[in-house]
Fold each of these.
Amino acid sequence: MGYLLPLHITCVVDALGRVERLEEAERKAEEVRQPDIVLWTSFLGACRLHKDVERAERIFSKALALEPKDTSLHVLMADIYAAAGRKTDLARVRNNIKEHHLHKIPGRSWLSIQGVVHSFVAGDPSHPQVP
């Protein structure tokens, strides 16, 4: 598999994960010589989708080795623990977020209407057309 770029493997891992072929997805991910955060985040999302907490913990550990301060990883793992009802683990991840002063960057959307670009952030009431 050395001839495939990591992006191609990430797409394969994502597709396999979406159809709950997590073991196969994990094998493909392990074939990448230098996995990146996108690969592990994609796989972590599949673990969340299919409620595979044990596999998610392994993947979370690998992702943290690459990007220990990536807030999205911590938030995703917190969501996995919350969905599984694992309150102690959820609290540990949330405390880790607070202790390391990590902040989630809100998503932003842009919409062009008649040549005017409108920017939105979830929960932001500052747009002039918000009632």
Amino acid sequence: METLDEQTYKERTNEAPAEIERYLCELSDSDVLLTEPASVKSNYPEIIGESNGLKHTFHMVSCVANTDSTVLILGETGTGKELIARAIHNNSLRKDRPMVKVNCAALPANLIESELFGHERGSFTGATERRLGKFELASGSTLFLDEIGEMPFDLQVKLLRVLQEQEIERIGGKETIKVNVRVIAATNRNLENEMDEGRFRTDLFYRLNIFPISVPSLRERREDIQLLAIHFTKRYSKKFGRDISSISSRVLHDLTQYDWPGNIRELEHLIERSILLTSGKVLKHVSLPVSKARIIDPDTDEEVFLKTIDQNEKEHIHKVLKYCCGRIAGIGGAAEILGVPTTTLHSKIKRLGITRGHFM
């Protein structure tokens, strides 16, 4: 039986355009082997991609890495801001010492100061011994302040002082301690909007914004999706002991068409889940999230989005936390208003990804 290539088929067929597209998709539905081109290798081996947007980011990293300048990394959630910070540190004069990381969104407001600057024994209830803060531990190295936009407003002035003077004081201490720290900060928030709304200090913003680097979203670098999918498929196939050697081209097509609101982190977790559900040697199916359904409200003739239960719950918790000014426990707290135990509300906040910046 004769096999038609794409050009021959176009010349000979009189079928409708939709049928032509369907047939061409079938012709091209081959498997792509799990091989990464040599061009992917660079001075930043942890970062996969060769798109123009990523190359520009690499250029910015190369310009600033070998200096002590403060860097502000900007980008959506899941774009790999920590990897960029590591690339800067690993190509700097401080690379012989480990980079120290603090996630400003993961720590309660009353613990961030102790985490950053340390404390003396007896300085507050529970301080049974002296503790060095992250600035002291990172002296001579790099301190990565992730989610800097979540830092409490009253602590921002203390951070500004450290950046300007390169000295700290432990909580409860009287001694001024000199430190030699290179700071790299990152955020997925628009800090200029945060300044306009009074949640972020203007002087701190300009002190951090000496050398901003924007990390492109995954939908802005679609040509890297295949490379990333191959990379994650190889990683998790090995991790789970699966003998997967290729990915269906149809799967790769679907991956490149999706907008990836969760960026690289979302792609990685999707590939991991798909590997667990695959038994053969070819990754033939991925369960991409269903797009938000849109309908026309018959009463207003306006377009509305249908939301999931989690989306509705997250939105409602947002409103209650904002009403309570972020207070969770106690009389009049969010847990009491919602009618759930405090521990349950804490679990929901963590599961739904609600951070302090959402309701302050």
Amino acid sequence: MQTVTATDLTDGTKVANTSPAINVVSSGVAKLQILLPGETAAPGTPSGKTGTPTPQTAGTAFNVTVNAVGRQLEPQQHQRYGRDHFKRYECCFAANAALVSGTKTLSVTLKTAGSATVTALDVDASCVGSNTSSSIPVNAGAFAKLQLLLPGETAAPGTGAGKTGPPAAQISGASFNVTVNAVDANWNLINSVTTPWGLVPRTAMPVCLPVQALVAGTQTFSVTLITAGSATVTASDSSDGSKTANTSSSVTVNAGSSAKLQLLMARETAASGTASGKTGTPTAQTAGRGLQCHSQCSGTPTGTS
């Protein structure tokens, strides 16, 4: 029930008049309404709600409320209206859930730090308008692991792999840069991590790069792979064993240009990437007898003598 009052704004001597009680009938369900933590319903106002959304943490569940409301955003208490289909900005879908007496509480987990919205859709009645929430600040979670990005790869927080793009092929003996990030469980950068953690990238070869501290959660390392074929690089936290190390995608390493010749004696074997380039001990030979050896240029046999 509502009343209407008429008041003279310029002459206070005039008696105001209030109407009899008016029975106001609901306009019926017109759309859905999403209320985030920190927001409260305010029927009859332009937005239908008041308050500021509370910041959330990536990977941590929180509850939102979905209401069936009328044209003036008044609640429809007696509607059990279809089934609500809840859409997250990360293009994932929560399970359908029926409204009970016009309302439903749903659990949402957002995985990507930054700013997000969520949308409620009625999957049973297309005439009911959907509703997109206010913008939600989403903060990164706790520092959980390291991330290593090769040339050609780009960080993709919130995804399963945490990155996208194929690694670019490299040349044996030529240096290239890799990026190491401090991230949470969902690959969001933790830019508050600075100097406490040193990182040791390791290649397939038993050679360690100097330890370097992260700056604002990230650091660039120069890497040189000297063995042609396929290789990976691993970043490990040298000071905190609780942080998960990360091994890169497989990177193709192509041989460099022809630079010198290699001669292999009997019982010697080529060992690419090592200091001498070969392994094994030459077999003792007898003076005056023929000797077999192999000459290679850039790893390709060129003849025997």
